[in-house]
Amino acid sequence: ILNVEQSPQSLHVQEGDSTNFTCSFPSSNFYALHWYRWETAKSPEALFVMTLNGDEKKKGRISATLNTKEGYSYLYIKGSQPEDSVTYLCAFNNAGNMLTFGGGTRLMVKP
Amino acid sequence: AAGVIQSPRHLIKEKRETATLKCYPIPRHDTVYWYQQGPGQDPQFLISFYEKMQSDKGSIPDRFSAQQFSDYHSELNMSSLELGDSALYFCASSLGLRSYEQYFGPGTRLTVT
What we know:
The complex is a heterodimer of chains A (about 110) and B (about 110).
Chain A (H helix, E strand, L loop, with lengths): L4 E3 L2 E5 L4 E6 L7 E7 L6 E6 L5 E4 L2 E6 L4 E6 L9 E7 L5 E3 L3 E6 L1
Parallel strand pairs in A: 2-11
Antiparallel strand pairs in A: 1-3, 3-8, 4-5, 4-9, 6-7, 7-8, 9-10, 9-11
Chain B lengths: L4 E3 L2 E4 L5 E6 L6 E7 L6 E7 L2 E5 L6 E5 L5 E5 L8 E8 L8 E2 L3 E5 L1
Parallel strand pairs in B: 2-11
Antiparallel strand pairs in B: 1-3, 3-8, 4-5, 4-9, 5-6, 7-8, 9-10, 9-11
């Protein structure tokens, strides 16, 4: 059983704050690490797919880093907005087909 | 752009009934994955198909079966439904067996009463 954990489970921030959260995953048999943005009742939306140790990816105000040797990835949101209030899922791919998901971080941004 | 389509979006069944969930991948995608997310749980991988053949199998109960058809759509058949089968069932698709990207559908919420 692969252990993928996200922390914190939920997070409340003020509009305009910057924030970050963590995904930890096994450091062996790494293939890819996925970040998804999941709004309730909608499809999880792919944010990043990270494959190389040291990868840093950015999309607008959201960025992510990857450390495969120690088994963690950070997701950063700069200047949080109310529309960022969704669940952020990370998923570990160990060269098989299947993704192993973390429990998600639910972000709530107060106007 | 076309996304992954799942039908139905909501389904209510009674115990011991059967249910069939359908997944239509993004056009040209040849790989389909099924995940189950129970209440308060992480999504769990069930099964995947590539080019109509099963490619990987996860924690799928024996009461469930699935297949992928020639048009690449997939169906998850669930028999002798139990209360514990109540969950959100996601389908994802990708192009190729070892693709880095999996695109998810909106899920089918199954409620077993």
